[in-house]
Amino acid sequence: MKDKKITFKYFSIAQYEKEEAYLRKMHQQGWKLVKISLRYLYVRAYIFEKCQPEDVIYRIDYDQTGGDAYVQMFEDCGWEYLFDFDESSYFRKKKEDIAEDEDIFCDGASRLAMVRRVFKAKYIPYLTLCVLGILLWIGLDSLVYMGSGKIGLIATMILWVTILLALLYLGVLTIQFYKCEKKLAEETEAAEGVKYKYIGLEVLWVALALVTGILILYANRSDYSVTDWDNGFSIESKRMNRGLEREYEAKKGDQIAIGHDIDDGYVEITIEDSEGQVLDNQYYEDWSEDIQTIVIPKDGRYRIICKGKHARGNVQVNLE
Q1: Among 23-27, 106-110, 165-169, 250-254, which stretch is predicted with the lowest mean pLDDT?
Q2: What is the CA radius of gyration of the chain?
Q3: Measured in Å, how far apart are the chain's first and last C-alpha atoms?
Q4: CA-CA-CA-CA torsion for 267, 268, 269, 270, nearest 10 degrees?
Q5: Is the separation of the CB atoms in 273 and 216 below 8 Å?
Q6: HSE (CB half, 13 Å, CA atoms) of 166?
Q7: Which residues face 305 on adjacent strands?
Q8: Residue % of the chain over a pLDDT of 90
Q9: Do the Cβ atoms of 306 and 243 come closer than 8 Å?
Q10: When comparing pLDDT for 144 and 95, which is higher?
Q11: How crowded is the C-beta side of 262, counted as CA atoms within 13 Å?
């Protein structure tokens, strides 16, 4: 393993120049790139092999067509083709063999076109994922509900997380590519329109974020009523995402009876004594004719805590 080295580095797609500079520095130190083995988000594992220290220029090109003709075109110019990774092609060439102003790209406009090509290829799928996720969200019963009980809530959370991660990725991608494209556009005197393009994308991102935030707030609303009497209470809920507590004086041998008819979501009911010791804790997530009863073990005051999560239906609690 002394002849090989693995490093883990973070490079975004827009940071190709930093990645190229890093690979050149490693080669100058006697480590040539042989493989990139994995990618998690932007973190990559670079595998190097020991070599004679040389000043070697690395170049990365995002290629959507590929093929032998594409590779041959650069090899004819003296560039060594290494491999393709994450839709990018890696090339290198000794600095001493490179003529002044020689590069894979003929000019700055070609490099700018490459950057814009990468941006579209990476941006559009995540934008589509985000928009479709929001539309799916809106189309579901009560906006975000995807079923009954905990399974539906887990599916809902997965959808939430997917949309939020897509939004985060779009935001980071927009900022990074704006800096990169602005720099190249200024070099090629083609900066007009870049600023307004990214302002439009930022407005789109803000709009999507606002819609997502409103949906989350709306999905976590509560709309229920509580009817109390001396020895119990009942809840009629269209959407319950809050908790309520009631305390009752009870004697040994008394029973707390719980009936429920939950259509969506679930209700958690916890019974505690005055010292905070839990007597019973149950989740109710469907309809049942059975009445759950809990026997009071000793005289004292007992707290009944009822918490709903997207709960729709009725719950009745009686101290008998």
Answers
A1: 106-110
A2: 31
A3: 75
A4: -170
A5: no
A6: 21
A7: 245, 270
A8: 19
A9: yes
A10: 95
A11: 27
Dist CA 63 CA 108 (whole Å): 17
pLDDT at 31: 95
Structure tokens, 152: 């539906």
Closest CA to 285 of 307, 263, 306, 305: 263
Nearest CA to 31 out of 9, 54, 15, 10 is that of 54
Q: Which two tokens stand for residue 90?
A: 């890696």
Q: Are 58 and 23 in contact (CB under 8 A)?
A: yes
**178-201 pLDDT, tens digit each:** 887 887 777 655 556 777 888 888
Of the ranges 55-59, 66-70, 235-239, which is most confident?
55-59
Residue-wise burial string across 50-70, b where 16 or more C-beta atoms lie within 10 A, e elsewhere: ebeeeebbbbbbbeeeeeeeb
Which secondary-structure segment (H or E) carries 236?
A: strand 232-240
Q: To which residue do tokens 């995540």 refer? A: 126
